[in-house]
Specification:
The complex is a heterodimer of chains A (547) and B (309). With 547 residues, chain A is of the alpha/beta class. Chain A contains 19 helices and 16 strands. Classes of the chains: A alpha/beta (547), B mainly alpha (309).
């Protein structure tokens, strides 16, 4: 029936913007000063590390993504224990995860959104800010001691700056990680490596050599056939993301039109960078030598999995979850087959990892919450549940003595009858499905220790290796004005589509790499220069206004 | 002799005994081609259905390695038991049946009334009424205004948000209107002479004569309400009110959508392919079973027209 296109959302948001902007006139001086009437239920002295408990029973509305794997249940232990600890009852608007973003757009634009809107990924909040229904949450951080504490302790200020809009405020409370969290990498069949007397590749050149050796031993098949080719990106999006970082640029999932060139101190067009060309050259070689299945860029995930499952390919993209739940199960019927996730291979840019991943999806707050007399209590509540050590542990592990136990060294163990992510296969109850803990809406971010408390030894090893690597520089904020954003969006779509399309052609040899200069000129025809100029202008302006 | 020769001149083929029963060569070729093409269509249509059915009875590793085509491999019923043991599935299933029945009833009443009125040529302002209906075929307020309207009327989180906003399908309305128009005026005149008023004419004369068309319309409406998920998704905020289509969509799109990309994959669980197939089978089965029962009305409807011609 209806399908909500991006344009419709923008139009609606724009329409809502004009009405709400009028209604919102004169609200600009809001700040901590006029919160006097909004402290009902709040704690007088609430500081980092304190247990939050409202002084009276409170109810807050929340938008709740119901994950298909652990659909919402009203009788989860999570809800009752949360009320017991904080005196707060959450009233969820349950939204199926399949179309969460769409319902969120409609509800926010219609002015009907619940007070707390979690599970929002930057920059999705930007389209909704213009409507004026979202609270500039950065104005109220003083109410959130745990958040401030973690930002200071983990030096997240520059990360947070990337979320700031032209007015210098940010509207999304992101989940915060102590360290960059890298999950996606490449899986490789180790039994084949052993058989051919090969080592686990450390660099992309190593991997190239390994693939060649595999090809020599199995000449009829492509040693690597990749997955994650969901449009609109060019395909093999994880492989492109890994490779582009290794070459010091961005592609696939990591593609952004504007790339921050730290040495030059300005933004450049990602798809026209020399590094981008080098990356394409490398991929082109893999395809030309028949080491990488050309279908990697177009096939469905299931097809890629089938090839791997049937021993038709030996190398494939993965993350922890797919490694354990899919790849290992898939190859179980091949005798002696083993597979591991290898640390990301290193490229010409040196051992690095993505730079922006210390922030996670987060929470938007409806501006109408500010009118509630419980506003301060709500902010304290959010601060406790999502940002305090106790709240994070509660959301993730549940209740000590019921769902998990803790030994003297602080190491947590699941209760004998509880299972999650396959950690305790004999457990009959599921931490997510039956108890409501470890829910993606509430449990994310936090300290490295908390995050790794759920990891297998193998994964800890992977993380240890990745933690030694240098993060790529985080691009500085370059917020557009509403007009500029509209113009930029128009240009950006054209540029991005063209880059993606030509990327595929260069890789698959449908266009010779000798055409590179011509391709860069064609990009200019798509207003790429104007766009980069606009980005740099916005960057300079922001730098001057917020030194 | 003359009577025998006359048909001969009509048929282009040489004269033969009992030629009336023998189809011409051209016709036989046509039949052959027809059968071939239609068989192809049948295979194309049936294959995905049978494949899903086979998957629903198969073990997951066979599905994942692409070995399940027309016959189940690793036959088991545990998946069916698992899906059927989820109380939310049955709650949502009951909702779907409830919404479909109520919505179809409301739609039929409203559409019949509107169409019958429009079919009367002597109705003043008829073209305006038709115009109003047709206007909504091409223009609508858009998603957010609709949402604000439904919300403002207090329909959110009630069944009325599902059954009222799309109660009249303009396409069905127009089909019904022309059907009523094609009915002989004499029938209604006779009814009037016998002393029936307008309502009695509609209920006792017109509707009983329109069974074939009504059955078709019920089918159209029922299928569209059974399959619809969007208004339920938009206007309902509680999972115990969702129809099973929303449940199913979350199971399939939620599990494979790109929205979880780059997030903590530790919380992104995979829904097994066989669970998806079982849910699909259970969801489409009842509405597919409706077709054979309504089909006889299609056939009798065709016959009805033939006799008149």
């Amino acid at each position: 029936m209806y399908q909500l296109s991006r344009r419709q959302v923008l139009l609606a948001a724009g329409a809502a913007a004009s009405t709400l902007a009028l209604a919102g006139c004169g609200d600009d001086d809001e700040g901590d000063a006029d919160l006097s009437g909004k402290k009902a239920g709040a704690m007088d002295k609430y500081a980092a590390g304190d247990q939050f408990k409202a002084t009276e029973a409170l109810k807050f509305s929340i938008m709740l993504l119901s994950n298909a794997a652990y659909p919402y249940k009203a009788d989860w232990l999570f809800w009752s224990e949360l009320t017991k600890r904080t005196n707060v009852t959450l009233e969820p608007t349950v939204v199926p995860g399949s179309d969460y973003n769409q319902k969120r757009s409609v509800m926010v634009s219609a002015g009907d959104a619940p007070m707390i809107i979690p599970k929002t990924y930057h920059p999705d909040e930007e389209a909704l800010i213009a409507g004026g229904a979202i609270l500039p949450v950065s104005d109220y951080l003083d109410l959130m001691p745990n958040f401030k504490d973690k930002v200071a302790k983990w030096k997240l200020d520059s990360d947070l700056d990337t979320y700031r809009q032209q007015d210098g405020k940010f509207y999304l409370l992101p989940g915060v990680h102590e360290t960059v969290y890298v999950d996606y990498s490449i899986a490789i069949r180790t039994d084949i490596l052993t058989k051919l007397n090969l080592q686990i590749p450390k660099t992309w050149d190593d991997l190239h050599a390994v693939l060649k050796a595999m090809k020599a031993a199995y000449p009829d098949q492509y040693p690597m056939s990749d997955r994650w080719s969901t449009p609109p990106q060019p395909g093999a999006n994880n492989l492109l993301a890994l490779l582009s970082n290794a070459f010091g640029t961005g592609a696939g999932w990591d593609y952004q039109n504007a790339w921050w060139d730290k040495d030059a101190g300005k933004f450049v067009l990602t798809g026209a960078m020399d590094q981008y060309k080098q990356m394409l050259t490398f991929l082109n070689t893999l395809v030309s030598e028949k080491l990488l299945d050309p279908e990697s860029f177009t096939q469905q995930d299931d097809q890629a999995r089938q090839k791997f499952a049937n021993g038709k390919s030996f190398v494939i993209s993965c993350n922890t979850q797919t490694l354990v739940n899919e790849l290992r199960k898939d190859i179980a019927k091949i005798p002696g087959a083993t597979v591991v996730k290898i640390p990301r291979p290193i490229g010409p840019a040196g051992p690095n990892k993505p730079g922006t991943a210390r922030l996670e999806n987060g929470i938007m707050i409806s501006k109408k919450a500010l009118e509630s007399k419980n506003f301060v209590a709500m902010m304290q509540f959010i601060d406790w549940l999502w940002y305090s050590d106790a709240g994070e542990e509660f959301a993730k592990w549940g209740i000590e003595g019921t769902t998990f136990t803790k030994d003297a060294s602080g190491k947590r163990t699941l209760a004998p009858d509880v299972n999650v992510v396959g950690l305790n296969p004999s457990g009959t109850k599921h931490l997510q499905v039956d108890f409501g803990f470890f829910n993606g809406v509430f449990a994310y971010g936090g300290s490295t220790e908390l995050r790794e408390s759920f990891y297998s030894d193998e994964e800890k090893e992977f993380q240890k290796e990745m933690n030694t690597r240098q993060s790529l520089p985080v691009p500085p904020p370059r917020p557009f004005s509403a007009d500029e954003r509209e113009q930029a969006t128009l240009w950006e779509t054209g540029i991005k589509d063209y880059v993606n399309q030509q990327t595929l052609k260069f890789i698959l040899n449908q266009r010779p790499l000798g055409d590179w200069d011509k391709y860069v000129a064609e990009l200019k025809g798509k207003n790429s220069d104007q766009f980069i100029e606009l980005a740099n202008k916005a960057y300079d302006r922001y730098k001057k206004a917020h030194p | 002799m003359v009577t025998v020769e006359a048909p001969e001149t009509l048929a282009s083929t040489p004269a033969k005994p009992n030629k009336g029963q023998r189809p011409s060569r051209g016709y036989r070729v046509f039949q052959g081609v027809n059968a071939l093409v239609l068989t192809g269509v049948v295979v194309l249509t049936l294959y995905p259905l049978i494949n899903i059915l086979a998957r629903s009875f198969s073990a997951e590793d066979y599905i994942r390695s692409g070995q399940v085509n027309l016959l189940p491999r690793g036959f088991n019923l545990t998946t069916y038991r698992r899906v059927m043991s989820d109380p939310m599935f049955w709650t949502n299933y009951r909702n779907t049946i409830y919404y479909t029945v109520v919505a179809t009833a409301i739609s039929m009443v409203l559409t019949v009334c509107y169409a019958y009125v429009l079919s009367k040529k002597h109705l003043r302002g008829r073209s305006v009424l038709v115009g109003l209906a047709v206007f909504t075929m091409f223009f609508n307020g858009g998603l957010i205004p609709n949402y604000v309207l439904v919300s403002g009327l207090g329909l959110r989180n009630t069944i009325w948000a599902i059954v009222l906003p799309n109660a009249i399908s303009v396409f069905n309305l127009l089909v019904m209107k022309s059907f009523f128009e094609s009915m002989p005026v004499e029938l209604e005149e006779a009814a009037a002479v016998d002393g029936l008023n307008t309502y009695q004419t509609l209920l006792r004369i017109v509707l009983p004569l329109s069974k074939a068309m009504l059955a078709t319309m019920v089918l159209f409406y029922a299928v569209s309400f059974w399959n619809s998920w969007f208004s339920a998704f938009l206007y309902l905020d509680r999972s115990e009110m969702f129809p099973v289509t929303v449940y199913l969509r979350n199971l399939i799109a939620g599990a494979t959508g790109g929205s979880d990309v780059g997030t903590a994959s530790e919380t992104a669980l995979q829904i097994a392919a066989n669970i998806q197939s079982v849910t699909i089978v259970l969801t489409v089965l009842p509405i597919m079973l409706v077709y054979p029962f309504i089909q006889r009305y299609f056939v009798s409807g065709v016959m009805l027209g033939a006799v008149k011609g």
